[in-house]
Specification:
322 residues, alpha+beta, six-stranded antiparallel beta sheet, three-stranded antiparallel beta sheet, 14 strands, globular
């Protein structure tokens, strides 16, 4: 079963030039039928931690066995958006069902940081509902793993209701089976007259961020890291990289101005790290070997202590070993 019903090469230049594409009937009828059946069973698939928040319910999509997942998705979206196919991650795959009383004019938002490219598949769209994008103004990416954290960080004049007052809006009149592609973390957007809308959002990036753990390769990467740590063989040749579920590295000051360095894995409590561990995280760019990282963070000091500290980051989920 194919998901998409278009040639991605036809849309790459359009995406690069205008910052979004709207592809009419870009979803195959077969996959759209599957989505309709999935939505009919939405209650059994709802994500408990997301349900009931805001004016829509969300469920994690499970792809049918006969879909080339994630192969077709990666191939098509990389071709349209220019993402690096070799390093792509699918960070979200959520069905979104808006309530009948959803606000007709909600506040614009930006998707979480890993949503470098957001892909909307329109499942059931009422006639008067539209997707509104602001692709030309205030397009700095959201650095946080939620829209709420971004809002909390903004000054009053940076809030979307104020900042977008004179911004150029693009209103896309999508219908069932349409595909909409745009930089979700960088583009303010909203669903206008969203009552009873049902769509699927797929979120992609090519920098290895998957805080929700929804990419099919994320769990396997973690298992391989733990397996390497357990065996202890050839560790120095492995490549430390920031784990896909790493959320923040924080420098916290207490009320008495004491400093604390902390790491947070998405959805978990933060834990303290040393200055050596902090520097190792900064050096974990996916290119240096563990031996190279250790030689820099130890800087002629106790390299075995540095090794224990850096491998401790891998044990606790802040680093993965490639």
């Amino acid at each position: 079963m194919k998901v998409f019903n278009f040639d991605p090469a036809d849309y790459r230049s359009q995406y690069q030039q205008q910052g979004y594409v709207h592809i009419r009937e870009g979803v195959t009828t077969e996959f759209h039928d599957y989505l309709l059946k999935f939505v009919a069973e939405l209650e059994s698939h709802r994500l408990a931690e997301l349900a009931g928040k805001g004016n829509k319910e969300q469920a994690l999509l499970e792809f049918p066995d006969d879909v080339d997942y994630p192969g077709e998705l990666y191939d098509v979206i990389a071709e349209v958006s220019g993402l690096n196919r070799a390093t792509m991650v699918l960070s979200e795959r959520h069905i979104k069902a808006y309530e009948a009383d959803a606000k007709p004019e909600p506040t614009a938002h930006k998707d979480r940081y890993p949503s470098q490219v957001s892909v909307g598949l329109s499942i059931r769209i009422p006639e008067d509902s539209t997707l509104v994008l602001y692709p030309h103004d205030h397009v700095t990416p959201n650095p946080f793993n939620s829209a709420a954290e971004l809002w909390a960080s903004l000054q009053p004049d940076e809030q979307p209701d104020v900042a977008l007052e004179n911004a150029r809006e693009v209103e896309l009149d999508d219908h069932d089976r349409d595909v909409l592609i745009f930089p979700g973390s960088a583009t303010w957007h909203l669903r206008r007259r969203g009552a009873n809308v049902v769509n699927l959002y797929l979120k992609f990036n090519d920098f290895g961020s998957d805080p929700l753990g929804e990419d099919p390769g994320t769990a396997g990467l973690r298992e391989r890291t733990l397996g390497a740590l357990q065996s202890g063989d050839g560790l120095d040749a492995l490549i430390p990289t920031l784990s896909r579920r790493l959320d923040t590295v924080e420098q916290v000051y207490t009320r008495g101005w004491a400093e604390s360095l902390q790491v947070r894995i998405y959805g978990e409590a933060p834990f303290g790290i040393t200055r050596t561990q902090y520097e190792a995280l900064r050096l974990a760019d996916g290119r240096r070997s563990l031996a190279d990282v250790l030689s820099e963070v130890a800087a002629g000091g106790d390299i075995e202590r540095a090794r224990r500290e850096v491998l401790g980051l891998a044990e606790r989920g802040a680093l993965d070993l490639l």
